[in-house]
């Protein structure tokens, strides 16, 4: 085993003081900062500001009102909605009265709702609007635990007569009517909690099966927030844009735990579709986003450069070449020569600053990515651009972040070093173990899964394979179960190949196969927007997504991208055959999790005939598909897909195993 030692805790946080829970931090911040801004929400095109005192009052009134609906210590409350102040009010109100918040993804389908609600068994569900209410009511008697449904956007709900329905404003009014006596009870209850209490149940993404309910304590969340701010200090009043699903631990660790600790100003976008514009308006100091967001930003930039006038295009390519050369020197620990430094400065003023400004990244001091692996080309692009982007590593079971890059030591091939209070161990099997105060209390109603996830020393078995390099940085290879061997026992990481392919602006998703097969193959989903733009520029006519994927010009385009990746891959693990899927992989079809992780086993089973045809040497394959409409209506159709060869299989060294 190799152990990766954590940094010592660098400083005590005056903001934390004697506070052990997030509601305690809210009360402390309200007393300290009073009328200073805590939250902003863009509504009807204008930014509304909510002070720390108002934040506390909203939470207090809602908490007291919820007790009249029956909320008691240990009760679970489901919360579903977009990123809005009401989501934060709800979570903190539940926690203030020692209840457990249970966040669900707002785009979850009815069946996903049913599974989590019946597992957590909340008596109260706090929902945003008619869409979420309809989703819950549509389950009928399938969710018997829910006795009260609190909504906070009343549009379209005025004619509903379900006796369980009540508006959040009405619940808060019930709390306000409790007056001084209620306020004192709220203060006593908040003060009596401690770090060992469970803050909520955070459901995993469910990559390999049904999501598991991870119980995180306040101690878990506060340890994570404290450790992160020790490594990457932020200042009170720094702006953070909250736009990722609030039910995800990655958003909770920033919007709730870290924002209350520092404290930050949390900004909520007007709508999910306006995030890019709102990001540019706010110009946040801190940002957390999964690789997909950074990849989309890069794709947008690449398409924009291709469509730009020739002078701007040439300038952009020159500026990025200079930026990458300077980055390579810094990454290698070498000094940037004076002439290169001057060229980098010129590139900054002529092109790079405007690129960052167009993405809303000019004021960023801290930028993080995690939740999935990021391709090195994407990471290096933003580093070269001058964005202080760092990879983080963690899981829901360790409060989201356990490992992070340090300033000046960020590398695309690693995820950094442990946060203070975290110990990382590499087991003899190569699996990464995590120990420390971050490790969760257990899975809700699943002691067997809890025992399997923890060692006798209460280290978390992450299920990821990795190693610690001589610079004491952690490298994550892949999920242990996802590492594959070809028929001749050549081992490879499918995730590595998938990330290299997804660097292309024309490729959205990739699933690699090859376990116990004679060669590596891939299912590829194109990026419809970028390939569509490319087709228009090159006068390639098409009608549907499926039609676009089968155009000879598009096939040649993606073939060149696959061959580009193959150049830097060992011969035995190059992609020999692939197919362009007729559709994008979709969470609604169970092919992806809600955080866009591939459900590899499900995809392999769904496209079994297609995969077998790839290995059978066929040129085409007919695939039966289902199209889901509203309700339960399903229509079947058949598509005929081309099976493509990137490398002549006969040109590679002899292989053993089955044909």
CATH superfamily of the largest domain: ANL, N-terminal domain
Whole-number tally of structural domains: 3
**Which structural class do you get from the secondary structure elements?**
alpha/beta
Radius of gyration: 26 Å
Quote the CATH topology of the largest domain. Answer: Rossmann fold
Strand order of the largest sheet: 8-7-6-4-5-9-10-20
| Main beta sheet | 8 strands, mixed
Distance between the termini: 39 Å
Helix fraction? 25-40%
**Average residue pLDDT:** 90
The appropriate CATH architecture of the largest domain is 3-Layer(aba) Sandwich
Short structural summary:
The protein is an alpha/beta fold and 659 residues long.
Could you explain the architecture of this structure?
By secondary structure, the chain is of the alpha/beta class. It folds into 3 domains: 223 residues, Rossmann fold (3-Layer(aba) Sandwich), CATH 3.40.50.12780; 188 residues, ANL, N-terminal domain (Rossmann fold), CATH 3.40.50; 169 residues, 2-Layer Sandwich (GMP Synthetase, Chain A, domain 3). It is built from 21 helices and 29 strands. Helix 12 packs across helix 13. It is globular.
Tags for this entry?
Rossmann fold, 659 residues, 21 helices, 8-stranded mixed sheet, alpha/beta, 29 strands, disordered C terminus, single chain, 3 domains, 5-stranded antiparallel sheet, GMP Synthetase, Chain A, domain 3
Please describe the topology of this protein.
Elements: E1 2-4, H1 22-33, E2 37-43, E3 46-51, H2 52-68, E4 76-80, H3 85-96, E5 100-104, H4 110-120, E6 124-127, H5 130-137, E7 148-151, E8 165-167, H6 168-176, H7 179-192, E9 198-203, E10 213-217, H8 218-231, E11 239-241, H9 249-261, E12 265-268, H10 275-282, E13 286-288, H11 291-307, H12 310-331, H13 338-359, E14 366-369, H14 376-385, E15 389-393, E16 403-404, E17 417-418, E18 422-426, E19 431-436, E20 442-443, H15 447-453, E21 460-468, E22 474-479, E23 484-485, E24 491-492, H16 494-502, E25 507-513, E26 520-526, H17 528-537, H18 545-549, H19 552-566, E27 575-580, H20 600-606, H21 608-615, E28 620-628, E29 634-645
Parallel strand pairs: 2-12, 4-5, 4-6, 5-9, 6-7, 7-8, 11-12, 13-14, 14-15, 26-27
Antiparallel strand pairs: 1-18, 2-3, 9-10, 10-20, 15-16, 16-17, 18-19, 19-21, 21-22, 23-24, 25-26, 27-29, 28-29
